[in-house]
Amino acid sequence: MDNSSENDYRALLKRSLVALDDLQAKVDALEKAKSEPIAIIGMGCRFPGGADSPEKFWRLLYKGVDAVTEVPADRWDVDAYYDPNPDAPGKSYTRWGAFIEQVDLFDPQFFGITPREAISMDPQHRLLLEVSWEALENAGQSATALAESLTGVYVGISGTDYSSNVIKNNNRNVDAYFASGVSHSIAAGRISYFLGLHGPNMAVDTACSSSLVAVHLAVQALRTGECNMALAGGVNLLLTVDGSIATSRARMMSFDGRCKTFDASADGYVRGEGSGMVVLKRLSDAMADGDTIHAVIRGSALNQDGRSNGLTAPNGAAQVAVIRAALDNAGVKPQDVSFVEAHGTGTTLGDPIEINALGRVYGAERDPSDPFFVASAKTNIGHLESAAGIVGLIKLVLSLQNRIIPPHLHFRNPNPYIPWDNLPVKVPVEPLPWKTRNGTPRIAGLSSFGFSGTNAHVIVAEAPVSEVLPEIERPLHILTVSAKSTAALNESVARLEEYLSQNPDASLADISYTANMGRVHFEQRLALLTDSAAEAGDLLATWRADNTAPGLISSSANIINDPEVVFLFSGQGSQYVDMGRQLYETQPTFRKVLDKCAEILQPHLEKPLLSVIFKTEGSNAQWLNDTAYTQPALFAIEYALAQLWRSWGVEPSVVMGHSVGEYVAACIAGIFSLEDGLRLIAVRGQLMSNLPAGGVMAAIFATEDRVAEAVAAYSDEVSIAAINGPNNIVISGVGDTVQFILDKLKNEGIKSQRLTVSHAFHSPLMDPVLDEFEQLVASVQFSPPRVGLISNLSGQLAGDEVLEPAYWRTHVREAVRFADSIQALYQQGYRLY
Fold first, then answer.
1. I need a labelling partner for 199 at 20 to 30 A (CA). Which of 155, 323, 571, 733 fits?
2. Residue 119 CB neighbours (<10 A)
3. Cα dihedral sign for 12, 16, 17, 18?
4. What does the alpha-carbon distance between residue 441 and residue 351 come to, in Å, rounded to a whole number?
């Protein structure tokens, strides 16, 4: 083999090895994605007992509230259908259930639904819309920002009570909206339609396991990349007596209306209703996006009972298999799980099968002195059937957040068919601290079994410990509230006032940020400026009393179109020592951006940027007035300020600057990168600083034509540097000549004012640096502007000319047509306030 062939062989081998490495990296990434933890970043719920928020649901669980009541009169006539005889045909032997309030109320206009269409909508659809919206708000996700996103929707739903009611009434209410109003697919599809989501969407019916199956499918879709965020959960409403009659005939119902899960007296379950939704993201995405992570789904699994001792009977072997599969998917050992939220219906057949299955998995190789706990929220709020799984998931998340295992109700005499002495398991009958072992995360299991035979199990862990950033509190905060109507605004204010009064020490910074950034802003608006949560609560209370309060503004906004904003960046002369210090000390975004600018500028400046801007030991206030430092300092401060506004959701439609400020504007517009922008401005300032001093600039309070006439004879020494207004013209040039012109105009009664500058900018005195600066600009990578840029040179919206080095050469020399720029903004409909 000659040298050429050997070299070719070595090159081929090298390329092959690189290709294999790339292929292996892709395989590893795919394998990792299959088991990536999924973050729960938001929750919403409407559960019995007034638990219409996660916080209220936790209080119900912690206090051990039994939310079961007699059937409300607005559902059905319980006396007409009740018979204690379980064999009585057409009757229910229970008078009990767990219900939510005001299920008949709905605000269709909020969701863009006409009142006529709303009449034909199953209330389950309405409830899902409301709870999904609340879950997104809990997650700090502005719904309008999700339009066209790959956000999936997975809804567990089984009930058909509403359509049954309509049909019973001789189809009198069947109209054009009926089919979509009761379809289970539309229950999920309507959420994506309203929010404009493009991710997967499906309704799931596996009976009692529906909502947990929905969560499992959402987890899978996130892991495979079908969606980047997902809403998952379920709903169940009890609108007719039919379900209670059917379950009574099957002897599924408890005679006393209580789920006495794992107790010797267990004789069936009690039906419950409500809805719950969670917002899910891949953990890596949630951490990168700075989302609040409530808990993490480590793994999940589904299977089917197959043939058992009856179509609707549980299968212990299948339960064991699905739990083991979930643990394997999560990469978790059974002994690491310390709490299991059981399916726990409280049936004579089901309870022993479930506990034995849990014991076979979670009890294996477990130290008897370290038992796991098992409980069921069905003892609090009944069996929510298609929404039962999401109840258990939200309960686990709340328990992990509070590090408390809430009590399991109605457990007095352990079921004798369960071998308690042989199983390392305990049932908590009072709130217990959820302890951890050796600093490992708290991990729980969750079961949900459908009477169709579909079983689901999910492994849930507490959120990873996030980096604790130093507490940075700005002196004042803007807190906003908005709604679609005055009445809704008042209700929102009342809820916020109640929360603030109960939590006066809460972080107003966090509350304000979420209210401002994690919400949709509607027409009716209220904003207040304050320094504490306690004062904010007082101001809201004052406003509710008489619609006025100091530092509080309320008004109606026109939101047909998003407001258009102009960012204006000032020029040289606006600098002062310690500018931006308070922002640097209180705003992490501003500080991060300014630090980055300082790092980029380090090779271009003799003195560190921050030592020039801020007064420190050994610094000199005069450094900032040296144009070599003035220009990059102004650029960095203005760029950091713009990024701070953008981090708050304020995006410019148009940008413009005054002289040096146009470099920042161009950078924000995307014409060149931050690195190139800082390099340009640093060299620009240095070139100008190296020019001989002695130039003069002065503002003349006369028209442009009059000033142009006055300087015309001295064009090789003096020129117009800026047209700031109809009667505010700046000239620049050789000192003696400028003064001569000023004196001549003074004799005509025209006033002027000399400016404090180091050099005569935008004058013939800049000519010596133009060639070198243009060569530097030629090395910059330009891109078309992403937002409009008003040009200093033309005073009009810039075109492709700003992508040429010649433009920036001329920019150094020619006048800043600021007045024309402002006029151009007015012509495009912008106004200054």
1. 323
2. 15
3. positive
4. 28
What's the token pair of residue 816? Answer: 């800043």
* Helix, strand or coil, per DSSP, at residue 501: helix
730: tokens are: 């700046």
Report pTM: 0.78
Distances (CA, A) of 231 to 152, 214, 294: 6, 9, 15
Q: Report the candidate in 506, 482, 502, 497 with the shortest Cα–Cα distance to residue 544.
A: 497
Q: How does DSSP classify residue 683?
A: H
Reduce the secondary structure of 203-226 to three states and give it as a string: EECCHHHHHHHHHHHHHHHHHHCC
- What ranges make up the beta strands (E) of 616-700? 654-657, 695-700
793/718 Cα distance (integer angstroms):
18
Comparing CA positions, the residue from 200, 195, 201 lying closest to residue 147 is 195
For 629-672, the pLDDT digits (tens) are: 999 999 999 999 999 999 887 899 999 999 999 999 999 999 99
Tokens of 575: 């600098």
CA distance 806 to 770: 10
Q: How many CB atoms sit inside 10 A of residue 436's CB?
A: 13
How high is the pLDDT of residue 549?
83
- CB contact burial 46-74 (16+ within 10 A = b; e otherwise): bbbbebbbbeebbebbeeebbbbeebeee
DSSP SS3 for 267: coil
**Type of residue found at 493:** V
Adjacent-strand bridge partners of 527? 480, 553
- In angstroms, how far is the first alpha carbon of the chain from the final one? 80
Give the closest residue to 278 by CA, choosing from 188, 155, 371, 421: 155
Beta strand 443-449 with 337-341 is: parallel
Q: pLDDT tens for residues 489-541? A: 999 999 999 888 888 888 888 888 888 888 888 889 999 988 888 988 888 98
Those residues with Cβ within 8 angstroms of residue 284's Cβ, 6 or more apart along the chain or in another chain: 36
pLDDT for 743-778, tens place per residue? 999 999 999 999 988 899 999 999 999 999 999 999
Going from the C-alpha of 591 to that of each of 165, 279, 370, 425, the distances in angstroms are 61, 31, 48, 52
- What is the rounded CA–CA span in Å between residue 20 and residue 613? 52
Residue 272 parent element (H or E): none
Give the separation between CA 254 and CA 241, rounded to whole angstroms: 16
Span 31-46, mean pLDDT? 89
**Residue 579 DSSP symbol:** T
- Local structure of residue 116 (DSSP, 8 states): H
* 602-640 tens-digit pLDDT: 999 999 999 999 987 766 778 888 899 999 999 999 999
What the block records as the tokens of 291 is 């989302």
